[in-house]
Design goal:
Elements (H helix, E strand, L loop, with lengths): L1 E2 L16 E6 L9 E3 L2 E7 L12 E8 L5 E8 L19 E3 L2 E5 L4 E6 L14 H4 L17 E6 H5 L12 E3 L2 E5 L19 E5 L5 E4 L17 E5 L2 E7 L4 E5 L12 E2 L2 E6 L21 E2 L5 E3 L2 E8 L8 E7 L4 E2 L5 E7 L8 E3 L2 E5 L4 E6 L5 E6 L9 E3 L2 E5 L4 E6 L6 E6 L9 E3 L2 E5 L3 E6 L4
């Protein structure tokens, strides 16, 4: 959640148009964060504002827009998993941000499929080897429609539910991590609608695919399933600890794991087990067995992790705590020593800072400061070395988005429509508060002198001008 962009605005106003480069209409529920790459902007949303009148009704949508003016390029359309609302929550759309490398876009859909897409969509032809784009864009049994240049070009598919027998709970959320030839992905393993048992407790939580073909090449062997309290929503991260590369992953069990990366492509038909270097239990006194009997217990429950782990200078920063919907309210920002081995629960914690209530936000580390927001409406600034607080700011609504730090400023939105710009400093200074058109759940991003801000209904491109 750090950007090196400069010259970014410290205020804007949609009513007057001040510092507004362009806006793009989305659906009416947008939980995803935009991704900017290769002159395009990608963002997941729902289909309540159909771009193609032939595709009406509830769908997951990944929009590809032109970075220059927000105009429409193409879209990926995915029908909902209609047999069980808890697998794919109605109207939630696509919640995952894609990962772009070259002319390839890697995406986890609302159906919990991993797709590799052509950056240019079908405008430059159907490149394959996958060819059934027409059939997959409509609900089963409704008949395929003719493909257009504004449709996505799917290159390969790895269907997690079919291959591993698991589904997310409510919605799939994962940002694929690329390391060399490989994609690292959270499988989104979650509970059944009863909230009493996992759909497949034996299934892995972290998998590795060949990015060229989508073949499964490795998976974790941590048996996390029985300890997952609700679902698995955290994306993996990567860091260099001394001369050692590690993959960091936060399980749905409230633990942080560090794995050795896959070194070489295994033979076809072989699925390797990831080698764990260390693990850290973020809430060691929480219940570890029969965890689902603590559903709705706001005082005692297991913890889970929804944000990404952040690696910086041999440390991992992570937010953890009781589940928003079903668990205790306690939550923390924790700092972990990433240099250890084995079970580092007793030795690895460098500091722990309590936030007000629950936490979905990925922290941002900037010039010795850690910024993070919580569901108790607070935005925090603490010392990244010691965890000592410098300031908190109470906003008017809970925050699910992460704090973006860029150009000496903190950008973050609330679920009560407010977007805040704050000085990225140990002394609190609110630079701007803007009321936008709808609630904000996704995080802001900065690219090429522009800040992109998603609300439920609109994507704002904000750029400093002389107006």
């Amino acid at each position: 959640m750090i950007s090196a962009e400069t010259g970014l605005p410290n205020r804007f106003d949609p009513e007057t148009g001040k510092n507004i480069k362009w806006t793009a209409r989305l659906g009416n529920q947008t939980w995803a964060t935009p991704i900017v790459a290769a002159g395009k902007v990608f963002i997941g949303t729902n289909n309540e504002n159909p771009r193609d009148p032939r595709h009406k009704g509830d769908r997951g949508i990944l929009l590809c827009l032109n970075e220059s003016d927000g105009s429409f390029c193409w879209q990926l359309i995915a029908p909902k998993l209609a047999d069980d609302r808890y697998k794919d929550w109605p109207k939630a759309g696509m919640c995952s941000p894609p990962t772009v490398e070259g002319d390839r876009v890697y995406m986890v859909t609302n159906r919990n499929e991993v797709l590799c897409l052509d950056l240019n969509g079908l405008a430059d032809g159907n490149d394959g080897p996958y060819r059934d784009e027409a059939g997959r864009a409509v609900p089963p049994g409704t008949g395929a429609v003719e493909l257009l240049e504004t449709d996505a070009d799917v290159l390969w598919v790895y269907d997690i539910p079919s291959e591993l027998g698991l589904f997310p709970h409510d919605s799939a959320h994962c940002s694929p991590l690329i390391h060399g030839q490989f994609l690292y992905l959270n499988t989104n393993s979650g509970l059944k609608g009863s909230h009493q048992e996992l759909r497949n407790p034996k299934a892995p939580s972290l998998i590795v695919l060949d990015k060229a073909t989508g073949r499964l090449v490795a998976q974790d062997n941590e048996h996390i399933g029985p300890r997952i309290f609700h679902s698995t929503w955290s994306s993996p991260a990567l860091g260099e600890v001394g001369d050692r590369t590690l993959v960091f992953f936060c399980g749905g069990d409230g633990m942080v794991y560090a794995f050795e990366p896959v070194r070489a492509m295994p033979p076809v038909g072989t699925v390797e087990k990831l080698t764990r270097v260390w693990r850290f239990d973020c809430d060691p006194t929480a219940p570890k067995e029969n965890v689902h009997k603590y559903i709705r217990n706001r005082e005692v429950s297991p913890s889970n992790i929804k944000s990404m782990p952040v690696f910086y200078q041999n440390r991992v920063y992570v937010t953890v705590g009781g589940d928003i919907w079903w668990g205790k309210e306690k939550a923390w920002l924790k700092c972990i020593d990433a240099t250890g081995t084995g079970d580092i629960t007793d030795t690895g914690e460098l500091w722990s800072y309590p936030v007000k209530m629950h936490c979905c936000s990925t922290p941002a580390i900037y010039e010795g400061l850690a910024f993070v927001a919580d569901c108790g409406r607070n935005i925090h600034c603490v010392d990244a070395e010691t965890g000592q607080p410098y300031w908190t700011h109470e906003s008017n609504g809970e925050v699910w988005a992460s704090t973006l730090v860029a150009d000496g400023k903190v950008y973050v939105g609330t679920r009560r429509r407010d977007f805040l710009i704050i000085a990225a400093d140990k002394d609190k200074k609110i630079l701007c508060t803007v009321k936008l058109d709808s609630p904000i759940a996704g995080s802001a991003v900065a690219a090429n002198g522009v800040v992109y801000i998603p609300t439920m209904k609109t994507l704002y491109a904000v750029q400093q001008t002389n107006r």
